[in-house]
Amino acid sequence: MTHRTDGRFHGSPNRSGDRLIAVPQRPADASAGATLIELLIVMGILAILMAVAIPTLRYATKDRTIREGARELVAFIERAKARAVELDRPAGIWIQRQDATAAGAQRGVRVFLCETPPPFSGTTASSRVVIANPASVGDLLNLPPGTPANFLYFDNQEYLNGISPTQMSLDRRIILSRVPPGGLFRMQLGNRAPDYWVERVVDNSGSLQLKVVRFVTVPEFIRNADPVLSTNNGLPPMAGGMPFTILFPPRRVAGTSMEFPRDIVIDLAISGMTASGFQFQAPLRPALGSASNPSPGDPRPVLIVFSPDGSIDTVTYATRPNAPANPAVEVVTVPPFGHVFLHLGRGSQIGRPPSALGYQSPNFTGNLLDTSNIWVTINHLSGKVTTAENIDWRTSQGNKNPPSTPPPGWILALSREVARTNTSMGGR
After folding, report:
1. pTM here?
2. Could you report the per-residue pLDDT of 227-280, keeping only the tens digit for each?
3. 410: buried, middle or exposed (CB in 10 Å: 19+, 13-18, 0-12)?
4. Is 284 in contact with 355 (CB distance < 8 Å)?
5. Which of 135, 264, 141, 158 lies closest to 209 in space, CA to CA?
6. How far, in Å, CA of 151 to CA of 322, rounded?
7. Could you tell me the residue ranges of all domains in the chain?
8. Are 140 and 212 in contact (CB under 8 A)?
9. CATH architecture of 58-116+250-421
10. How many Å apart are CA 297 and CA 105, to the nearest integer?
């Protein structure tokens, strides 16, 4: 093989008849890559695309997160209803607040299953209860502390000798083991309604006393004929006793909870019953607050309990029934008086007490005005659960001429009405 002066190879055939082929070489002065101007143009295009795409991606991720939370909550509610059918007694959900701060008390951050323990009618077939020195129906609502009227006794020894940690009936001992100090439970006498609400009285002697605190109005002829609601007429104390059935408050089931995705919460400040109720809003304690130290909220949970037939049996929440005259907070358990509305929103949008923010203000940009949020609605009669996107009240269908300054509760009522009547979002 020889090399020619023009830079080309001149080869001769090898043994197999192949030839060596010369490959042309690139000139040394050819460009090795893109120019600086080309790179700057590409980077500029990418920056524009990212500026357009990132907000859209952020909104899509935010929307998907809250939908995921809504699906999980609906599935958990259905699980509670199935639990009531399985036990053949009430079961439901226990919504835990974040903490006792003004904002944290409005955030439902975790949901547990809860269930009602089996009814208790005493340790023997002959177990009886008597209400000592019963007051009139009207007096039951505001009895002064320490009033002996309306205390429960389960045997003659308790009534005659008093109650102490070492001297009490077995029935009382069992009740105290299931009801915390200050706790309420329902009691039925015989097979007759109504239920009596009984409280475990808080005192310095171990909180051993049980006291009827209220009951629905009993017709006068029944009250006078009832040996438990009238005097014993000189008979031995238990001679007027009656069979009883105690329905203990629901208890949280350990190991059965769900947590929402990051920053997703149930906004309890705008959740409640009926079109405009704020029942689940944590009551604040103004007597304890100041300008520099906001009033703390009550951290006790919200309970929504279902009957085995799927309907809502009771709803439990903390409230200040006599506000503002009396700042005392008490826990009430009531039958539902309308659909239950749970607003799934963002914890970061609950920053101050709702009373200070004014959720009805058209300028408020919190959860109530966030159209990516979701309402979870429970029909109190059938137990059916539906979900619906939060509306923009300014452009809502049928709301062509919204008021410039909505009256209190107007936005909330409109949002809930749309949520109640809209078709469920399903798996979207």
Report:
1. 0.70
2. 333 333 333 445 557 888 998 889 999 888 999 988 899 999 889 999 888 889
3. middle
4. yes
5. 158
6. 24
7. 58-116+250-421, 130-247
8. yes
9. 3-Layer(bab) Sandwich (3.55)
10. 5
